[in-house]
Specification:
By secondary structure, the protein is mainly alpha-helical. It has 5 helices and no strands.
Length: about 60
């Protein structure tokens, strides 16, 4: 299931609220990204968890 524009914006806003160091930490690995998303926006995480691997490969592959 695709994310709505509001959900995408929520993830962007949550990520933008992090300082540079925390952003780098979140993006350091797929596991770190998944943990951050699960803790920060659980409902969105539940929606995308089955294709997070594909998303990660697309973003950083």
């Amino acid at each position: 299931m695709a994310l709505t524009e509001a959900e995408k914006r929520r993830v962007e806003l949550l990520f933008d609220q992090l300082d540079y160091y925390e952003q780098q930490k979140v993006l350091s690995s797929q596991h770190a990204f998944e943990n951050w998303l699960r803790k920060s926006a659980y409902s969105i995480y539940c929606k995308v968890r089955d294709w997070l691997n594909d998303l990660w490969d697309w973003l950083f592959g």
